[in-house]
Specification:
Blueprint: E1 7-10, H1 14-25, E2 31-34, E3 54-60, E4 66-71, E5 87-89, H2 94-105, E6 109-116, E7 121-127, E8 133-139
Helix pairs in contact: 1-2
């Protein structure tokens, strides 16, 4: 089965963001490596302040889903945060949906509070404190 995972880029605060996401979802990082751990590359001299930046972070969320990310700097190209994507989380219970929504929205901005919807889900949207858009969607079981 093909799976799709989200890869997020941050401007120097990837470690902070992934530590936050770990506190929301639990689990352990399958990888958390810095640019300083990379082997030297010909023609590229790493600046001292780049060495502690995250080169790659992987946080398994479920058996099928891994949240991944890294840091970037202007040297690697411009990073633009936008509203052209959202990460959708599909928890297994209403209580889990509430817990995840509450945790992710801490320090962020709720754009649609959790509510029962006309399409049969308990759903809410938010922008977290790292400017990442999230949708929490619990499919209400049919009677």
């Amino acid at each position: 089965m093909t799976t799709i995972n989200v890869y997020l880029n941050f401007m120097g605060n990837c470690r902070e963001a992934f530590t936050f996401y770990k506190s929301v979802f639990g689990g352990e990082f399958s990888h958390l490596g810095t640019f300083g751990e990379m082997p030297a590359q010909e023609g590229y001299e790493m600046k001292e302040d780049e060495k502690d930046l995250i080169m790659h972070a992987s946080l398994p969320i479920s058996k099928e889903t891994i949240l991944m990310g890294s840091d970037t700097t202007p040297r690697f190209g411009e990073l633009t945060f936008g509203n052209n994507f959202s990460i959708t989380v599909n928890p297994s219970s209403r209580e889990e949906a509430e817990s995840i929504f509450r945790a992710l929205s801490e320090g962020g901005k709720v754009t649609m509070p959790m509510a029962d919807t006309f399409w049969g889900a308990y759903f809410g949207m938010l922008e977290d404190k790292f400017k990442v858009n999230w949708m929490v969607n619990f499919e209400i079981p049919s009677p």
